[in-house]
Amino acid sequence: MAPPAAGGPPPLPSPSPALLSLPASIASLPGPLRLQLATELRHAERLRDALPPPRRRLAPPPLEARATLAYDEARFPLRATLARTLALDPPLHRLHLALPAFSASRDAHRRVMAAKAALLRPLAEEGAEGAFAAAYEALVLEVLAPHLRAALGAAEIHFAAAPTVRVQTPSAGRQLRAHCDGVYGVQEGALNFWLPLTPVRAECALHVESAPGARDYLPLLPEVGEVVRFNGRRCVHFTVPNTTNQTRVSIDFRCVIGEHFDPYNRLAREEYFSKARVTEDGSFVKVASGRISKLHGMPYS
Question: Which of 234, 201, 228, 202 is nearest to 215 (CA)?
Protein backbone atom coordinates (compact mmCIF):
# COMPACT_ATOMS: atom_id res chain seq x y z
CA MET A 1 0.00 0.00 0.00
CA ALA A 2 1.39 3.43 -0.95
CA PRO A 3 2.13 5.82 1.95
CA PRO A 4 -0.31 8.71 2.41
CA ALA A 5 0.48 11.99 0.74
CA ALA A 6 2.22 14.47 3.00
CA GLY A 7 -0.31 16.32 5.10
CA GLY A 8 -3.21 14.14 3.92
CA PRO A 9 -5.29 11.69 5.93
CA PRO A 10 -4.15 8.06 6.03
CA PRO A 11 -6.06 5.76 3.68
CA LEU A 12 -8.85 3.62 5.11
CA PRO A 13 -8.16 -0.11 5.36
CA SER A 14 -9.69 -2.22 2.63
CA PRO A 15 -13.21 -3.42 3.42
CA SER A 16 -13.56 -6.98 4.66
CA PRO A 17 -14.31 -9.36 1.75
CA ALA A 18 -16.88 -11.03 4.02
CA LEU A 19 -18.72 -7.74 4.45
CA LEU A 20 -18.68 -7.07 0.72
CA SER A 21 -20.52 -10.36 0.16
CA LEU A 22 -23.28 -9.40 2.57
CA PRO A 23 -26.62 -7.70 1.75
CA ALA A 24 -26.49 -4.30 0.05
CA SER A 25 -27.83 -2.66 3.22
CA ILE A 26 -24.43 -3.46 4.81
CA ALA A 27 -22.04 -3.49 1.84
CA SER A 28 -23.23 -0.03 0.77
CA LEU A 29 -22.50 1.63 4.12
CA PRO A 30 -19.89 4.42 4.05
CA GLY A 31 -16.38 3.04 4.48
CA PRO A 32 -15.73 4.17 8.08
CA LEU A 33 -19.13 2.93 9.25
CA ARG A 34 -18.71 -0.38 7.44
CA LEU A 35 -15.33 -0.91 9.07
CA GLN A 36 -16.73 0.01 12.47
CA LEU A 37 -19.45 -2.58 11.99
CA ALA A 38 -16.87 -5.18 10.90
CA THR A 39 -14.96 -4.60 14.14
CA GLU A 40 -18.16 -4.88 16.16
CA LEU A 41 -19.13 -8.09 14.42
CA ARG A 42 -15.77 -9.73 15.05
CA HIS A 43 -16.01 -8.78 18.74
CA ALA A 44 -19.62 -9.99 19.05
CA GLU A 45 -18.78 -13.27 17.30
CA ARG A 46 -15.84 -13.90 19.65
CA LEU A 47 -18.03 -13.29 22.69
CA ARG A 48 -20.75 -15.55 21.29
CA ASP A 49 -18.27 -18.31 20.50
CA ALA A 50 -17.00 -18.12 24.09
CA LEU A 51 -20.45 -18.83 25.56
CA PRO A 52 -20.71 -22.26 27.23
CA PRO A 53 -22.42 -24.83 25.00
CA PRO A 54 -26.09 -25.33 25.83
CA ARG A 55 -26.69 -28.00 28.47
CA ARG A 56 -29.78 -29.08 26.56
CA ARG A 57 -31.40 -27.95 23.35
CA LEU A 58 -34.95 -27.16 22.44
CA ALA A 59 -36.50 -30.07 20.58
CA PRO A 60 -37.01 -30.38 17.74
CA PRO A 61 -33.83 -28.47 16.76
CA PRO A 62 -35.59 -26.49 13.97
CA LEU A 63 -37.37 -24.49 16.68
CA GLU A 64 -34.05 -22.79 17.35
CA ALA A 65 -33.92 -21.67 13.71
CA ARG A 66 -35.72 -18.62 12.36
CA ALA A 67 -39.43 -18.87 11.55
CA THR A 68 -42.25 -16.48 10.62
CA LEU A 69 -45.78 -16.65 12.03
CA ALA A 70 -48.82 -14.70 10.85
CA TYR A 71 -51.43 -13.05 13.07
CA ASP A 72 -54.70 -11.22 12.48
CA GLU A 73 -54.20 -7.46 12.81
CA ALA A 74 -57.92 -6.92 13.40
CA ARG A 75 -57.91 -9.37 16.31
CA PHE A 76 -54.62 -8.10 17.74
CA PRO A 77 -54.57 -4.36 16.89
CA LEU A 78 -51.07 -3.55 18.11
CA ARG A 79 -50.45 -0.85 15.51
CA ALA A 80 -53.78 0.92 16.07
CA THR A 81 -53.66 0.78 19.87
CA LEU A 82 -50.09 2.08 19.96
CA ALA A 83 -50.99 5.04 17.74
CA ARG A 84 -54.02 5.83 19.90
CA THR A 85 -52.06 5.56 23.13
CA LEU A 86 -49.47 8.00 21.81
CA ALA A 87 -52.17 10.32 20.42
CA LEU A 88 -50.34 10.48 17.09
CA ASP A 89 -51.67 12.51 14.20
CA PRO A 90 -49.23 11.17 11.60
CA PRO A 91 -49.25 7.39 11.01
CA LEU A 92 -46.57 5.40 12.84
CA HIS A 93 -44.18 5.35 9.87
CA ARG A 94 -44.20 9.17 9.96
CA LEU A 95 -43.76 9.32 13.73
CA HIS A 96 -40.61 11.41 13.44
CA LEU A 97 -42.77 14.31 12.21
CA ALA A 98 -44.30 14.44 15.69
CA LEU A 99 -40.88 15.08 17.27
CA PRO A 100 -39.99 18.75 17.82
CA ALA A 101 -37.39 20.09 15.37
CA PHE A 102 -36.58 16.58 14.15
CA SER A 103 -33.27 16.04 12.38
CA ALA A 104 -31.70 12.85 11.02
CA SER A 105 -28.17 14.17 11.59
CA ARG A 106 -25.79 12.38 13.93
CA ASP A 107 -25.42 15.56 16.00
CA ALA A 108 -29.14 15.50 16.84
CA HIS A 109 -29.07 11.94 18.23
CA ARG A 110 -29.34 12.80 21.94
CA ARG A 111 -32.07 15.35 21.38
CA VAL A 112 -34.06 12.95 19.20
CA MET A 113 -33.70 10.15 21.77
CA ALA A 114 -35.01 12.44 24.51
CA ALA A 115 -37.93 13.51 22.32
CA LYS A 116 -38.77 9.86 21.55
CA ALA A 117 -38.75 9.00 25.25
CA ALA A 118 -41.15 11.86 25.96
CA LEU A 119 -43.42 10.78 23.11
CA LEU A 120 -43.50 7.17 24.36
CA ARG A 121 -44.04 8.05 28.02
CA PRO A 122 -47.82 7.40 27.87
CA LEU A 123 -47.01 3.70 27.41
CA ALA A 124 -45.29 3.58 30.79
CA GLU A 125 -48.08 5.59 32.41
CA GLU A 126 -50.68 3.25 30.92
CA GLY A 127 -48.77 0.24 32.25
CA ALA A 128 -50.26 -3.22 31.95
CA GLU A 129 -53.86 -2.00 31.94
CA GLY A 130 -54.07 -0.26 28.56
CA ALA A 131 -55.31 -1.34 25.16
CA PHE A 132 -51.82 -1.78 23.67
CA ALA A 133 -50.75 -4.02 26.55
CA ALA A 134 -53.97 -6.02 26.20
CA ALA A 135 -53.38 -6.56 22.46
CA TYR A 136 -49.83 -7.73 23.15
CA GLU A 137 -50.90 -10.14 25.87
CA ALA A 138 -53.69 -11.55 23.70
CA LEU A 139 -51.20 -12.15 20.88
CA VAL A 140 -48.93 -14.10 23.22
CA LEU A 141 -51.73 -16.17 24.76
CA GLU A 142 -53.69 -16.88 21.57
CA VAL A 143 -50.95 -17.17 18.91
CA LEU A 144 -47.47 -17.65 20.32
CA ALA A 145 -48.22 -19.88 23.30
CA PRO A 146 -50.24 -22.33 21.16
CA HIS A 147 -47.39 -22.27 18.61
CA LEU A 148 -44.89 -23.25 21.32
CA ARG A 149 -47.27 -25.88 22.67
CA ALA A 150 -47.70 -27.43 19.22
CA ALA A 151 -43.94 -27.45 18.63
CA LEU A 152 -42.76 -28.50 22.08
CA GLY A 153 -45.76 -29.67 24.06
CA ALA A 154 -45.29 -26.70 26.37
CA ALA A 155 -47.97 -26.51 29.06
CA GLU A 156 -46.47 -23.40 30.63
CA ILE A 157 -44.64 -20.43 29.13
CA HIS A 158 -42.90 -17.40 30.57
CA PHE A 159 -43.13 -14.26 28.44
CA ALA A 160 -41.99 -10.65 28.73
CA ALA A 161 -44.35 -8.68 30.97
CA ALA A 162 -44.24 -5.94 28.33
CA PRO A 163 -42.74 -5.79 24.85
CA THR A 164 -39.80 -3.53 24.09
CA VAL A 165 -40.97 -0.79 21.73
CA ARG A 166 -38.33 0.16 19.14
CA VAL A 167 -38.63 3.45 17.27
CA GLN A 168 -35.91 3.84 14.64
CA THR A 169 -36.32 7.25 13.07
CA PRO A 170 -34.40 8.27 9.94
CA SER A 171 -30.85 8.78 11.16
CA ALA A 172 -27.23 8.89 10.12
CA GLY A 173 -26.40 6.74 13.16
CA ARG A 174 -27.19 3.19 14.15
CA GLN A 175 -29.52 2.28 17.01
CA LEU A 176 -28.43 -1.23 18.01
CA ARG A 177 -24.84 -2.45 18.20
CA ALA A 178 -23.90 -5.96 17.10
CA HIS A 179 -24.42 -8.42 19.96
CA CYS A 180 -26.05 -11.66 21.02
CA ASP A 181 -28.27 -11.75 24.08
CA GLY A 182 -26.41 -14.58 25.82
CA VAL A 183 -23.55 -12.18 26.55
CA TYR A 184 -25.96 -10.15 28.71
CA GLY A 185 -27.08 -13.10 30.81
CA VAL A 186 -30.20 -14.14 28.90
CA GLN A 187 -30.87 -17.75 29.82
CA GLU A 188 -30.63 -20.84 27.65
CA GLY A 189 -33.90 -21.75 25.98
CA ALA A 190 -35.06 -18.15 25.53
CA LEU A 191 -36.60 -17.40 22.12
CA ASN A 192 -36.83 -13.91 20.64
CA PHE A 193 -39.92 -12.64 18.82
CA TRP A 194 -39.73 -9.54 16.60
CA LEU A 195 -42.64 -7.95 14.77
CA PRO A 196 -42.90 -4.69 12.83
CA LEU A 197 -45.75 -2.23 13.23
CA THR A 198 -44.70 -0.33 10.10
CA PRO A 199 -43.48 -1.50 6.67
CA VAL A 200 -39.84 -2.64 6.80
CA ARG A 201 -37.06 -2.17 4.26
CA ALA A 202 -33.54 -3.57 4.52
CA GLU A 203 -32.17 -0.10 5.32
CA CYS A 204 -34.17 0.07 8.56
CA ALA A 205 -34.46 -3.61 9.45
CA LEU A 206 -32.98 -5.72 12.20
CA HIS A 207 -30.14 -7.83 10.75
CA VAL A 208 -29.75 -11.33 12.21
CA GLU A 209 -27.71 -14.44 11.49
CA SER A 210 -29.91 -17.19 10.08
CA ALA A 211 -28.31 -19.60 12.58
CA PRO A 212 -25.62 -19.23 15.27
CA GLY A 213 -22.28 -18.87 13.51
CA ALA A 214 -23.75 -18.47 10.01
CA ARG A 215 -22.39 -14.90 9.77
CA ASP A 216 -24.78 -14.08 6.92
CA TYR A 217 -26.56 -11.17 8.71
CA LEU A 218 -29.68 -11.00 6.60
CA PRO A 219 -32.31 -8.31 7.26
CA LEU A 220 -35.62 -9.42 8.76
CA LEU A 221 -38.33 -8.31 6.33
CA PRO A 222 -41.69 -9.54 7.64
CA GLU A 223 -44.92 -7.88 6.64
CA VAL A 224 -47.03 -6.01 9.18
CA GLY A 225 -49.14 -8.83 10.61
CA GLU A 226 -46.20 -11.25 10.88
CA VAL A 227 -43.91 -12.22 13.77
CA VAL A 228 -40.36 -13.52 13.36
CA ARG A 229 -39.02 -16.02 15.90
CA PHE A 230 -35.24 -16.34 16.20
CA ASN A 231 -32.52 -17.48 18.55
CA GLY A 232 -31.31 -14.10 19.78
CA ARG A 233 -29.35 -15.67 22.60
CA ARG A 234 -26.76 -17.06 20.17
CA CYS A 235 -27.45 -15.32 16.84
CA VAL A 236 -25.61 -11.99 16.50
CA HIS A 237 -27.96 -9.16 15.53
CA PHE A 238 -27.80 -5.38 14.97
CA THR A 239 -29.27 -2.49 13.00
CA VAL A 240 -27.87 -0.26 10.26
CA PRO A 241 -28.58 3.48 9.89
CA ASN A 242 -32.14 4.13 8.80
CA THR A 243 -31.47 5.91 5.52
CA THR A 244 -35.13 5.83 4.47
CA ASN A 245 -37.55 8.72 4.97
CA GLN A 246 -39.77 6.61 7.22
CA THR A 247 -39.67 5.62 10.88
CA ARG A 248 -39.51 1.91 11.64
CA VAL A 249 -41.62 0.99 14.67
CA SER A 250 -41.42 -2.56 15.98
CA ILE A 251 -41.75 -4.55 19.17
CA ASP A 252 -39.68 -7.44 20.45
CA PHE A 253 -39.80 -9.72 23.47
CA ARG A 254 -38.69 -13.12 24.77
CA CYS A 255 -40.49 -16.32 25.71
CA VAL A 256 -39.24 -19.38 27.58
CA ILE A 257 -41.17 -22.63 27.88
CA GLY A 258 -41.71 -23.90 31.41
CA GLU A 259 -39.32 -26.86 31.42
CA HIS A 260 -36.44 -24.61 30.29
CA PHE A 261 -37.23 -21.73 32.65
CA ASP A 262 -34.43 -20.80 35.05
CA PRO A 263 -35.87 -19.01 38.12
CA TYR A 264 -32.36 -17.97 39.17
CA ASN A 265 -31.55 -16.21 35.91
CA ARG A 266 -31.13 -12.43 36.11
CA LEU A 267 -34.28 -11.68 34.10
CA ALA A 268 -36.37 -14.05 36.21
CA ARG A 269 -35.03 -12.60 39.47
CA GLU A 270 -35.94 -9.10 38.31
CA GLU A 271 -39.46 -10.21 37.31
CA TYR A 272 -39.04 -9.62 33.59
CA PHE A 273 -41.47 -12.46 32.83
CA SER A 274 -45.18 -13.03 33.23
CA LYS A 275 -46.38 -16.64 33.22
CA ALA A 276 -49.16 -18.42 31.34
CA ARG A 277 -50.50 -21.96 31.66
CA VAL A 278 -52.63 -24.14 29.41
CA THR A 279 -56.16 -24.94 30.60
CA GLU A 280 -58.26 -28.06 30.13
CA ASP A 281 -59.77 -26.70 26.91
CA GLY A 282 -56.31 -26.09 25.42
CA SER A 283 -56.31 -22.30 25.75
CA PHE A 284 -53.70 -20.36 27.71
CA VAL A 285 -54.39 -18.01 30.63
CA LYS A 286 -52.00 -15.73 32.48
CA VAL A 287 -51.37 -16.97 36.00
CA ALA A 288 -48.65 -14.56 37.16
CA SER A 289 -47.63 -11.02 36.19
CA GLY A 290 -44.11 -9.72 35.89
CA ARG A 291 -42.97 -6.20 36.69
CA ILE A 292 -42.42 -3.64 33.93
CA SER A 293 -38.94 -2.14 34.28
CA LYS A 294 -35.93 -0.80 32.40
CA LEU A 295 -35.26 -4.38 31.25
CA HIS A 296 -38.18 -3.93 28.85
CA GLY A 297 -36.47 -0.90 27.29
CA MET A 298 -37.86 2.45 26.20
CA PRO A 299 -40.05 4.03 27.43
CA TYR A 300 -39.81 2.19 30.73
CA SER A 301 -36.23 3.19 31.53
Answer: 234
3-state secondary structure of 185: coil
Q: How many helices (H) and strands (E) does the chain have?
A: 8, 11
Residue 191 zone, left/alpha/beta (φ > 0; ψ -120 to 50; rest): beta
pLDDT score, position 142: 98
E-strand stretches of the chain: 67-70, 156-160, 164-168, 191-196, 206-208, 218-219, 226-230, 237-239, 248-257, 273-278, 284-288
Say how far apart CA 227 and CA 251 lie, in whole Å: 10
CA distance 50 to 44: 10
Q: Give the residue extent of every domain in the chain.
A: 47-52+59-296
* CATH class of segment(s) 47-52+59-296: mainly beta
Helix (H) or strand (E) holding 50: none
pLDDT tens digits, one per residue of 41-65: 999 999 999 999 877 777 666 677 7
Q: What is the pTM of this model?
A: 0.88
